[in-house]
Every structure is written in structure tokens, then in C-alpha cells.
Amino acid sequence: MGEMDRGAAGEPSSSAPAEGPVVASTSAASGANTMEITPLGAGQEVGRSCLVLKYKGKTIMFDCGVHPAYSGLVALPYFDSVDPSEVDLLLVTHFHIDHSAALPYFLFKTNFKGRVFMTHSTKAIYRLMLADFARVGRAATEEQIFDENDLQRSMERIEVLDYHQEVEACGVRFWSYAAGHVLGAAMFMVDIAGVKFLYTGDYSREEDRHLKGAEMPSIPPDIICVESTYGVQTHLPLYEREKLYTETIAAALQRGGRVLCPVFALGRTQELLLLLEEYWASHPELHRFPIFYASPLAKRCMSVYQTYINQMNDKIKTKASLGNPFDFKYIRNLSGISDFDDSGPCVVFASPGMLQSGLSRQLFDRWCQNAKNALVIPGYCPEGTLAKHVLTEPKEVQLLSGQVVPLKMSVHYISFSAHADYTQTSEFLSTLNPAKIVLVHGEATEMGRMKSALQRRFENEGKSIEIFNPKNCQTVSMEFKVDKEVRAVGKLADRVVLKDGERVSGLLVQKGFKHTLLDPKDLQTYTQLSAGTVTQKQVIPVEIPFLSLSDQVASIFSKVELKEGKGGKQVIVIDPGVELHSEDDKVVVMQWRSDPITDTIADSVVAVLMQLQMKPSLGRAETGVPYRVMKSLAADSGERDEKTGEKKLQSPEAGLIDEVLESIFGKVQQDAKKGEWIVSVGDVTASIDMRTHAVQCKDDRVKSQIRVAIKRIVQALYPIDCGC
Predict the structure, then answer these.
(1) Do 96 and 227 meet the contact criterion of CB atoms below 8 Å apart?
(2) pLDDT tens figures, 268-319
């Protein structure tokens, strides 16, 4: 039960359930309000996205990707900067390898024991993407960060959620919004103790041929971690990019060239296939030029897209009502280079998109020396990749064989990358108006320009928003002072009258960072908890009559009754609920309902019984009365000391003290006239007053030992002072 002063009533936050009035509100100490955000990847770079958030004792990791420019262990995020065993949650935004391909390694090559979440469609495509990534990586390098077995086991660890589905795990509340970008991509909103953190991952606010744009969260976050891939750049309008893309491909074909479009197996590829299918249908003169979708996963990829058409936009849903929009007429599947008839002009979509290895690299090496051919790069290219290198217009390139050859094919960069540009991001941030912004997933220069541009915009709008652009492993710390609220629910809420300073009593229940005050009768209604009692039993051996035991107990506790129990056996009942059952002449069973008061009484009863076991003969006088009553009777008997004239008391503990002193210090002599015990320890002699227990001794060490011994004896005899 809890009792507290009621603070001023406040409006519930937009995400708080309507449970009842706020009955208390307090602020935590400043040290407990520090949030730490550390990028382990994608800090002033593009690739190996991985961010760690720490707040209120919770640790959350967002994304777990590899860097496409590297291979093996060097491609991983800087996992050595975090203790994986402390990570409670891992939230993966989408299936691209720079956001998900390190997940099997983190799950099974570290001591991570937390939970992993992603959307349904992301999980389905993640399996296909990483299988292809492992296959291509196996051919390119001997250093593998995971194998097929790790990938399959990771599927068993991954939990799924729908957009807008609120999940509470490890004391953290979170949900997701559609992010555009690719099928299944999500932005995660995390709520820890009332502080809301939005991680966008890769997102795009622009609707295309098959996906909706990213949603605008209905609940404004306190902090946003947002991508800065394109810095201050602004994309051309979509129709202009589509026109440029199709015309560039058509021109290369009509001059007798071959067109290579390096893409990932899934993602923007489907958008480009839809575009070329539509363009070919309206241009009969191009029908003689084949289009190949070169991926061993092509058929399986298309089946996944068909399964999740409900997550796409109205355009594709309308087409789906008339037939399968991904059943192409002019596009053929190509499983590998061995099945490719390279006999004339054609268009080939081949993975991977960065030209690092695989079929796209093989075709590039084959076609790069012919000026009729064209390389059309449709996506963002990170530093360190071949795709990024050829955009700098080098005169020569190095083939996989190591040979250096002239680069004669034309190179075109027409971005269909579904990343937000500056216009989209600045409007997105201005609308949500967070207190703080953390920039990730951008090259250092572009990120710096974006930070400056955003600061100027917010200053002009009169907004005070802090912006951070940390490097990898650089921690950003920020303070958030959030009131801790306690809300009344159920019958207690109905009784509450909102008056400052009034005290409210109820059962305080904490779940995660949520505090609820309720009537105990409402416990099962508003929680998954239930009230219960613990009944304890203890079997105690005794060697005194049960009636004498009843007298002893009655001399200590005020409310004691002797009743008849089952089978006619006697029961001593000590209020408020401790019972002593007589089993036989040598055993007593003590039973009580556990709570702080009855537990204390039970302990006291055990102490009394132990005392009687040590000296059962002291348990009763000839009249059968207990110790302290016997002391009172002795005081009234008229016996007096011959010298002092004071009443002479021979307390029941005297014999016990005598025996214990002998067991510790050896032979003890009694001086009956002086009423003293004489104890000798070596050459040291001490005297102990039998009545007051005062110790006289010149040796302080021996004096202290005797005092401690007597004190413990008396405490054992009289554990509770009843004033007798």
C-alpha cells in the first residue's frame, strides 16, 4: 500500500492512456536523466548503420549493418565500443545490407541476449538478401562474418511487428511508422520513461510507382535521429529523372551498346523494373532489345513483393486488382552469367549495386572498354566503392583480374535512391519540432553542410533546436528532466477529488516506467497481478507441558487464547494470527499467515521456546507460573537482605548465568553474602553482582568479555521487554 501527497493535476501526454487523474508528480535527480547516443557505424559516413541509445538503465541498438566498401570483420560496426550483454533491444529498420547484414554476427558471435524486432516484410526479404550477400561474399573473400547456419538461426530470434503496433519489451515502449524507402522499411519511435526518441533509418517522403512516402508521426518526439545522406542537395522532380533515365538507356541501345544498371536484388530495383516495363510498352521500337533482371533470387523476390502488395500504394493495388503487377512482359530473369547470351544490345539489372563483386562487377569488367556501352547508376554510392570511383571520371580502372584498362563506356548517375533530400528532411524536422536532432548516415562534408543549413532555418523560424553530427564511437550526452507521474485508476480514480496536498492511499504498481495507484480490489482488473497470502509452518520440539507453554506465551503477549482444534487437540492462538498446535508431548507446530507483524511475533515465540529448551526446569515454578510472574512473586514474599534491608530476588536466570559463565571462563565461585559471582581468568579476577549484573574488574578486556556474555544471556532469555 502506498500513501502520497497529491500534486497538481496535469494533462496526459498524447501517448498516455486515459487512465485517470495524475495523483503525484516528481522529478528525478539529474544524473538519472542523462541520455547517451553513440553511433557505432554511419557516424559521418554512409554504411554499417548502427546506433546505441542508453537511458534510464535501458540500452537499445538501432540497425546492425555492414559497410559495402569493405569485407570481413573490418566491415562491421565498432561493436567493441559497447557491451553486447547490456543491449536490451535491437530494432532493424529495413533489409538493406548496410542496415542488417551484421545481425547474424552480433547474435551468435557476441554475448548479446536481448530481443530483435523488425517488420514482417523486412524479415521475409532479410532472409533472401543475406543469403545472396553470403553467396557473393564467399566468392569474393575467404573471411566470412556468418554462414548459412547463422542466418537460419537468426530467423528464429527475430520477432516481428506491424506498423503502428505498440510493443512493450524489456521495460521499453516502441512502435513503428512506414518509412517509404523500400518495402517494409520502418521508422521506430521509442518511449523510455516519457522521453520519445525517433530513429528514421533510411526514409523518403516522396511517393513513387509502388510505395507510399514516409509517414509523418502523429506524436512529436523529443529527439530525432535522422539520415543526412544527401546533405543540402535537392532531387530533381521524379518525372524529370524518369525521363532522363529512360532516354539515356534508349540512346545507348540504339547506338548498339549494352546498358548495365548495378542494383541490389531488392529495393529500388522493383521501382526501375516497373518504370522500364511501362516505357517499353509505349515504345514498340525498343521491343527488340531484351531487358534482363539478373539475380538468382529473382523469382523468390517477386513472390515476396506479391505477398506484401497491401503495404504498397494505391497505384500498385489498382494494378494488382487486374493482375500481378510484377509479372513482366518485357523483362526476363537471368540466374547467372553462364546463362547470358551476350550477343547484342541489351539492358541488364545486376547486383550488387556498388560493383564490388558478383555479376554486376563481371559485366562491368567485360563491357567497360567499349564506348558504345553505358553504365547507369541509380542509387547512392558510398566512399570506397568502385561505383563511387567511376563517378569521378577516371581514365583507367582496375579489373578483378588486377589488369588496368581504359574506361571508355559512358557513366551516368541518375538518382532513384529513396533517401530524403534536404527539402524533405528540413520540412519533416520543422513540422515535428524536436528539442534535439542527431545526424547520421552521411559523409562528413555533406553532414556538416546540412547541419549549418538546418541551424539557419531554425533560427529564422525562431526555434531553439540543438543539432549534433557525431563521428563513429563519439557519444552525445543530453539531459531530459521528465516528471514521474502516478495515475489513479478504477475505484480509486472515482473517489479522487483533485485538491493539492490531499493524501491518497492505495496499491502502487510499477510496470516499466509507468506508475499506477489503485484500490487492492482492482488489482486483477487493471494488471496481470493477483493478491495472495503465504501461510508458514514451523515444527518446534518442546519438553514442557502445553499448558505451561500457554502461560509463558500469555505473559508476553496481551491477546492469547487457548482453544480446541481438530481432533480435540489444543491450540494457542496469538492475535493477530499466530497459532501453536499441540501435536504430541514433544512437538509443537507453529502456523501463521506471513506479514511483517505476524513474522515478528513468530520469531519471538521461537526465541521463548529456545529458552525453555535450554533450561526447561526454569519454565515453571512449583505453582506452574512463568519467569517474570515468578520474579514478581519473589519480590512480594517478604525476603530481605540482612545488610541492606532491600527485597532479595533470586531471579530464574541466575542458575543459567552461572552455568554459561562456567562454560566460558571455567570454575565460577559464588559469594552468597555479597551476592556476587567470582570469575578467575588466569591472574585476573572479576566480580559480578547477581542482582544488577554489574562487573568489577581491573582488566578492561576481561571485563568487556564478561559483560558481552551476560548481555547475550539476558537477551536470549527476554527477547521482548514487556515491562515486567
Answers:
(1) no
(2) 788 899 999 999 999 999 999 999 988 766 667 778 888 888 888 888 888 8
* Helix or strand (DSSP H, E) at 556: helix 546-556
User: Beta 223-227 vs 436-440: how paired, if at all?
Assistant: parallel
The answer to whether the beta carbons of residues 129 and 100 sit under 8 Å apart is yes
| Residue-wise pLDDT tens digits, 367-406 | 999 999 999 999 888 888 899 999 999 999 999 889 999 9
In sequence order, the 6+-apart residues with CB closer than 8 A to the CB of 378 are: 245, 261, 263, 268, 272, 414, 415, 416, 417
Active site residue 693: no
Backbone phi, psi, residue 681, to 5°: -125, 95
pLDDT in tens, 141-163: 567 899 889 999 999 999 999 99
Query: Is the bond preceding 576 in cis, omega lying within 30 degrees of 0?
Result: yes
Beta strand 259-262 with 347-350: parallel, antiparallel or unpaired? parallel
pTM over 0.70: no
Q: Using alpha carbons, list the distances in angstroms from residue 148 to 75, 138, 300, 443.
A: 18, 11, 17, 32
- Number of Cα atoms under 13 Å in the Cβ half of residue 527: 21
The closest of 458, 431, 425 to 232, measured between CA atoms, is 425
C-alpha cell at 588: 509443537
Q: How many CB atoms are closer than 10 A to CB 50? A: 29
Residues in contact with 338: Cβ distance below 8 Å, sequence separation at least 6, in sequence order: none
CB atoms within 10 A of CB 396: 9
Distance CA 720, CA 708 (A): 18
Selecting among 99, 419, 441, 581, the annotated active-site residue is 419
pLDDT tens track for 75-117: 999 999 999 999 999 999 999 999 999 999 999 999 999 999 9
Given a contact cutoff of 8 angstroms between Cβ atoms, the answer to whether 621 and 630 are in contact is yes
What distance in Å separates the CA atoms of residue 651 and residue 656, rounded to the nearest whole number? 10
Burial category of 3 from C-beta neighbours within 10 Å (exposed 0-12, middle 13-18, buried 19 and up): exposed
349, β-bridge pairs: 261, 293
